[in-house]
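Chain X:
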Amino acid sequence: MSSPRPESQPEQQQTPPGTLGEMTPKPDHGEESYRGSGKLAGKKAVITGGDSGIGRAVAIAFAREGADILISYLSEHEDARDTAKYVEEAGRTCVLVPGDLSDRAHAKTIIPRAVEEFGRVDILVNNAAFQMTHESLDEISDEEWDHTLATNLTAMFVLCKDAIPHMQPGAAIINSSSVNSDMPSPSLAPYAMTKAGIANFTASLAQMYAGKGIRANSVAPGPVWTPLIPATMPPEKVANFGEQVPMGRAAQPAELAPVYVLLAGDEASYVSGARIAVTGGNPIL
């Protein structure tokens, strides 16, 4: 895939969680560009936040590599159905499960549904996340703090705990962290804190389950053009989104997917406990 040079995004704003249909320009999830080669043939994957953004790009790539997929998403039904269309066009099964992962009772239904559909879980991608931009702690309500932790951390814990008993040696857990885990933005304090927690928890999992042949890694994206951005940032920040990185632009979701494919597949059999930076040039430590 050649390096894209997308048009810059104008000022825009959406109501959370945001949808693809209202974005200008439209993100590239690899719909036309990703070509699979059987790297995940026969595998069964669960992807949270798989309706749009990074999750959608990963779902398309996984399907074209041969995986059947369960997609957990909040309420963006049109986006989710469109993602499922690409999965099914690749000849794979796609199960859609809407609902709020911040509700622990709903989060507890995801893995049982995957096991019911597929019999096992080979790949778990914890990607769903919530963020909001604030300039002071006074702007962050207790309810928003609790919701951020429930969505970004607790749901990840629940899904990992539920999935591992249904995983065989060679299975992979991939959790979406962020460059904010290492370079926290002051305007994204609760989100950044959870992303550091995700990286730390993943590193613990890698050590805890190495003896069972289950690998755990995290991916640390930099700025990525997804519905989360116009839905959670002021319009003027949206217009400049991504310009601060050395490459001078936000990533397209399609540029993240190959890293998830690598970590999910057998070619990464000795990669566990890693945090992979996909940041447009910003280093993480």
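Chain Y:
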Amino acid sequence: MSDYQQPGYGYGPQQPYGGGPGWQSGPPPNGYGYPSAPAYGTDPGYGTQPPPPSTSAAMWAHLGALLTVTAGSMMCCGLGAFAGWIAPMSVRGGERNKHDRYVRHHATEALNFGITQALVAALGTLLYFGTMLVYGLAANEAQRASAGLAIPMLTVIAMMGVYGITGVVCAIIGTVKATRGEWWTYPRLIAWPMVKAA
């Protein structure tokens, strides 16, 4: 038999499993011989980390507003544009989401989007019918018989259409961002910050 023996093998004194510098004797911390893993968010090497965001509720806040404004407007003669704030408000006011900053942020953004869409839809309706009324009162018989009224009416419709498409694109972006766990804010023109997240 050779006189050479590797440390830790053979007849010499054995170290306990996992021995070495820094090993503490005594019973294992968790009964299995391994130190316990720190709880989520309390790792001393990385500081306190927030829990993963609730992406499902945040996504439904944006998606609810988007579906109400688009599908509701198509099915109910444009009335969906006035009700886009209902779904985000119900997500924001839900008991489970009252203390979740991530969900409240996205629900508040979607709520501001829905309120803004309702206000712009009301403004567009007033402009549309106001243009008809003013043109009808101010125009003479020849102007009324011509297609002159179509120009201001089509201008109002085009402005509202461009604004509506921009809002739909922003709502889709908000839905995707909320699903990915990212913080996102609508442009001020699309969602006036009337309601605060706090």
